[in-house]
């Protein structure tokens, strides 16, 4: 490591910003994205006891693996990697590091192709394609907004109970893999759509044993994973969405849109209930108010108005 006095990150960030603006002449959007990429990496490195000066290639690859495990689209991963490489080129140019290990940085090998990511407009189109004259219309609207607004797995959605919802605090108690419980912040849109669905649900004759289930069929039984799959697939086709999607696509879209909106990587991990193989024991403690602030600040459903009915 070079013996030169190393600036703290706020100072480094300021100098890097000036470099991007004055010497590289980047567009405003690219400059902002590169700074956001640097912020995300530094935040993640701090959580594992590292910094931009000490992190080696294996450490930085751990950050990229976390992005992949969150379901962040390959395109977004590639853009973030470009931002990280830009930062390390600057560090090397300024002799703040001896070796630029990111020259060998590649996107992680994907064992399977991630589902396509939906745009906010495509999700709006799916919502608008719902036939609200049918008794299940409001239910399907609430399903889409809960999958996208809370980033749930389809199994988690199917097992939601009415008493899992804290409307006052805007939180869901979710039972995830391994019966692990987590609190998930809700977008205001998902809260509103669920409230409307509960009014329609009250007019359905619910089968014995299903009284507490949030999402039920017209016949009063809880929805299955297959039923939700066909609901999502049918709405995509009705909306003219030319992508191969499933309920999990909405979960990936939730994660990608939050990240691209500037949300904290650790907050997204905790909301998704996802344990990274690289950092299982290194989660930051994030309280409920912080998680809710992340989704209210960065989720598209809260940063732009939903199209009126």
Chart the SSEs and their pairings.
Blueprint: H1 9-23, H2 28-47, H3 57-69, H4 74-93, H5 120-128, H6 137-150, H7 154-158, E1 165-166, E2 171-175, E3 181-185, H8 188-201, H9 225-238, H10 247-260, H11 265-272, H12 288-298, H13 300-303
Antiparallel strand pairs: 1-2, 2-3
Helix pairs in contact: 1-2, 2-4, 5-9, 6-8, 6-10
Primary descriptors:
three-stranded antiparallel beta sheet; single chain; 309 residues; 3 strands; mainly alpha; 52% helix; 13 helices
What does this structure look like?
There is one protein chain. This protein starts with 8 loop residues before the first helix and ends in a 6-residue tail after the last helix. The chain has 309 residues and is mainly α. The protein has a three-stranded antiparallel sheet. Helix 6 (137-150) runs antiparallel to helix 8 (188-201). It is 52% helix and 4% strand. The protein has 13 helices and three strands.
Number of strands: 3
Number of helices: 13
Strand order, main sheet: write it out: 1-2-3
Helices and strands, in order, run as HHHHHHHEEEHHHHHH
Q: Mean of the pLDDT scores?
A: 84
Query: Helicity level, as a percent range?
Result: 40-55%
Give me a quick take on this structure.
The protein has helices spanning about 10-25, 30-45, 55-70, 75-95, 120-130, 135-150, 155-160, 190-200, 225-240, 245-260, 265-270, 290-300, 300-305, and strands spanning about 165, 170-175, 180-185. By secondary structure, the chain is mainly alpha-helical.
């Amino acid at each position: 490591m070079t013996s030169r006095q190393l600036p703290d990150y706020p100072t480094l960030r300021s100098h890097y910003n000036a470099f991007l603006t004055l010497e590289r002449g980047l567009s405003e959007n690219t400059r902002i994205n590169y700074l956001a990429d640097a912020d995300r990496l530094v935040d993640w490195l701090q959580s594992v006891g590292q910094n931009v000066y000490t992190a080696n290639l294996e450490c930085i690859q751990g950050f990229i693996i976390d992005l992949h495990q969150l379901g962040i689209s390959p395109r977004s991963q590639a853009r973030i990697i470009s931002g990280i490489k830009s930062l390390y080129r600057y560090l090397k140019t300024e002799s703040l590091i001896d070796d630029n290990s990111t020259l060998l940085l590649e996107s992680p090998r994907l064992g399977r192709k991630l589902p396509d990511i939906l745009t906010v407009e495509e999700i709006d189109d799916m919502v608008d394609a719902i036939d609200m004259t049918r008794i299940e219309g409001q239910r399907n609207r609430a399903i889409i907004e809960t999958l996208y607004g809370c980033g749930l797995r389809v199994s988690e959605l199917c097992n939601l109970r009415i008493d899992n919802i804290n409307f006052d605090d805007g939180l869901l108690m979710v039972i995830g893999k391994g019966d692990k419980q987590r609190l998930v912040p809700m977008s205001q849109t998902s809260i509103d759509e669920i409230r409307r669905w509960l009014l329609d649900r009250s007019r359905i004759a619910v089968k014995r044993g299903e009284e507490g289930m949030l999402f039920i069929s017209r016949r009063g039984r809880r929805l299955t994973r297959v039923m939700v799959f066909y609901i999502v697939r049918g709405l995509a086709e009705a909306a003219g969405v030319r992508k191969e999607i499933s309920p999990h696509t909405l979960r990936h879209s939730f994660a990608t849109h939050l990240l691209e909106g500037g949300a904290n990587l650790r907050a997204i991990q905790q909301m998704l209930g996802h344990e990274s193989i690289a950092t299982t024991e290194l989660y930051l403690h994030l309280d409920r108010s912080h998680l809710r602030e992340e989704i209210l600040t960065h989720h598209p459903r809260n940063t732009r108005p939903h199209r009126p009915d």
